[in-house]
Amino acid sequence: MEVEKGKGTDVSDVQGEDDLDEEPGEEIESAPPLKVGEERELGNSGIKKKLLNNGIHWETPEFGDEVTVHFVGTLLNGIKFCSTRDNGEPMTFKLGEGKVAKGLDNGITTMKKGERVLFTLPPDFGYGAEGRDGVPPDSIVQFDVELLSWITVVDICKDGGIIKKIMEKGERNERPSDLDEVLVKYQVALADGTIVAKTPEEGYEFYVKDGHLFPALTKAIVTMKRGEKVKLIVQPKYAFGDKGKEATDGFPSIPPNSVLNVELELISFKPVIDVTGDSKVFKKILKEGEGALVANEGAAVTISYIAWLEDGTVFERKGVDGEQPLEFITDEEQVIPGLDRAAATMKKGEQALLTVSPEYGFGSVVAERDLAVVPPSSNLVYEVEMLDFVKEKAPWELNNQEKIEAAGKKKEEGNILFKDGNYQRAGKKYDKAVDYVSEDGLFQDDEQKQIKALRISCWLNGAACSLKLSDFWGAIQLCSKVLDFESHNVKALYRRAQAYMKTSDLISAEMDIKKALEADPQNREVKLLQKTLRQLQIESNKRDAKLFTNMFARMSKRSSMPIKKLKVEIAEPEKSEEAAATERECVAEPSTPSEDRMAVDQS
């Protein structure tokens, strides 16, 4: 058994964790932890593990990690064939690289830090039919092993290009993302120890997405936890490649194709969140808030802030320098959309820096604020603190009567917004109303009639919003929910037919109109929609006829057979008296039913 002599920096042959075969280990789930003096077989491997001393914590090393151990190897008759304790020097090696007997690799992966174990290895997991110095062929061997420590080793890119050794573990499980701002300390050295880059003592701050120095840094940082310290071995393709780097800032140049050794610490990071999902409102968290709850939509919030333009001009202050804090309800358009949306994501006590694009600010108009005028199309910056908020009660926090009342209130708020032409927000109100009365099993029989009426009314009104917003599939889904309860609901059939017509599904539209007229033969709005449908069908038939005429014409030209004459005639079917009348009506009357017909349900 050879002790590792030293480590080179060329690690292109290092295996990634994904390349290693799965090895047997201790079956923790199927058996309780070992007690001191107890022995157990590891799976069906034939490897036996006897616990001599307990370890600490719960973590165990993995294949690829660098472990430091003391061990004594003996035959079953007690004859010693190797030992690290004889010279007092523990052995450090990487698990899974064949530096020790295969069974010892497997066994160590079941050990905790400080644990001492006696492993008994069958020949297949020891030295096999060949044996070794002091070990006859096909011998069962034993190892008394103490796991002193280990360093987690990660092949970040799975190609040996960036090897990360975790020297000190970080806090929590959060890692920075590409948008976040990180504060790091590092020292970069060549293979001969020459330092070629180093941060000031206080560290260096940058956004991950912007990158810094060379690619390996950001690739490593996004794998690290706050407070984590690592050593990196970086191959040239993730450093400065075949060009190297000129001497700068008092540091020497980096020769081409240099392998770099990096000591890196992630001191802290400030999470940056894309609030709106379109990169137009960013929130950088300066101070974490309390607990896990955020204000969310519909919450009554109290905030303080300072707001300024990109040139530093402060245009508004609230809750600072003697000013009263701002109180508002989120998702009610009481403040600019960017501030509204961001506030809904904040925890109590959280401090954040917001950058708001004009689309979510004051738009293309001039805005006169308390301290300055905001020019058109201005980017805005807000430093905000969430002082307090009171969330709107969730459905599960209310009794049945309160749920019904809350649903009715949301529906009325939606109706007002619909009349004002704010269809997006109206649709949200109808959705919230349905949320309050969505569980049948919780309501009594005398309440079922109320909640059914509320649901149907909100689904219908929501469908009307979807039509206004050109969300035709959304309208179809909402109308279909109504028709699951009332298969001949005229409003639902009417609105779903409108949506089908907009998606060119004229057959489904015709079926819905037919069913609506069966339920209400004199309904004027449905009849007008039927006329519009017939006109669309006529236009569709003409397009189809033209398409087939052109298709047959192309086929005749491509034919190699001698043809005297090919004549394709597509004759329109003889119009019925009703169809002819319909065409006249479509010309004489508007083709689309009035928008005021089938208005939202106010009941």
TrEMBL record:
Keyword match Hydrolase: no
Keywords: Isomerase, Repeat, Rotamase, TPR repeat
GO MF annotations, alphabetized: peptidyl-prolyl cis-trans isomerase activity
TPR repeats: 490-523
Region (Disordered): 1-42, 570-603
EC number(s) stated in the UniProt entry for this protein: 5.2.1.8
Positions with biased composition (Acidic residues): 15-29
SUPFAM superfamilies documented for this protein: FKBP-like, TPR-like
Enzyme class: isomerase
Reactions performed catalytically: [protein]-peptidylproline (omega=180) = [protein]-peptidylproline (omega=0)
Compositionally skewed regions (Basic and acidic residues) per UniProt: 1-10, 570-587, 594-603
Domain of life: Eukaryota
Occurrences of domain PPIase FKBP-type (ranges): 64-151, 179-270, 298-390
Similarity field: Belongs to the FKBP-type PPIase family.
The protein, known as: peptidylprolyl isomerase
Species of origin: Gossypium barbadense
